[in-house]
């Protein structure tokens, strides 16, 4: 299902942006690439639609080759339920999913899998213990699926624009799991 990407770029406007109502889509693990499948004995605790931006910065490559590349700085997205109701926020670094109840969780990447030209990859992350009690307590894994946009800018990154930042729009479903 293709959904429009909304422009929600500043924290002050995140609460005001509303995603259109979306049909509930269950994520059959068998339909996803094996690398990003959640291990058995975990159940879906929450499905969210993340809509926002990813910031990239033009930097020298770490390999000392003299080349330059767009470096992922971090996301800033509104997390909503499938009906558009605000549930929280996803931001980083470090990658943090925060509920409106104040609980939050960070995570470490386990795997990625291509999601098609122009889209950031599908992703599986393993959650660290939650901070605070609430919706994020007990979250064990988070999948990023149904990605749209978010890839590094197409404009050149070179010595002439080192330090330049570009913000790109993206949308993805974040499926949060808890152990059964």
Automatic annotation (TrEMBL):
PROSITE patterns: PROKAR_LIPOPROTEIN. Pfam families: DUF3455. It comes from the Bacteria. The keyword Cell membrane does not apply. Keywords: Signal. The keyword Transferase does not apply. InterPro entries: DUF3455. Residues 1-18 form the signal peptide. PANTHER family: CONSERVED FUNGAL PROTEIN (AFU_ORTHOLOGUE AFUA_1G14230), MALATE DEHYDROGENASE (AFU_ORTHOLOGUE AFUA_2G13800). This is DUF3455 domain-containing protein. The lineage of its organism: Bacteria, Pseudomonadati, Pseudomonadota, Betaproteobacteria, Burkholderiales.
């Amino acid at each position: 299902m293709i959904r429009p990407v909304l422009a929600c770029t500043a924290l002050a406007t995140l609460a005001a942006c509303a995603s259109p109502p979306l049909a509930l889509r269950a994520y059959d693990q068998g339909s996803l690439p094996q690398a990003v499948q959640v291990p058995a004995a975990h159940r879906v605790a929450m499905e969210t639609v993340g809509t926002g931006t990813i910031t990239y910065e033009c930097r020298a490559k770490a390999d000392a080759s003299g080349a330059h590349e767009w470096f992922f700085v971090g996301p800033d997205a509104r997390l909503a339920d499938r009906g558009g109701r605000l549930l929280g926020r996803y931001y980083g670094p470090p990658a943090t999913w925060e509920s409106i109840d104040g609980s939050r969780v960070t995570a470490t990447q386990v795997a990625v899998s291509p999601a098609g030209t122009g889209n950031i990859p599908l992703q599986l992350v393993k959650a660290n213990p939650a901070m605070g009690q609430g919706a994020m307590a007990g979250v064990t894994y988070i999948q990023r699926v149904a990605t749209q946009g978010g890839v590094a800018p197409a404009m050149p990154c070179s010595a002439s624009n080192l330090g330049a930042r570009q913000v790109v729009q993206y949308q993805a479903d974040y499926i949060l799991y808890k152990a059964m």
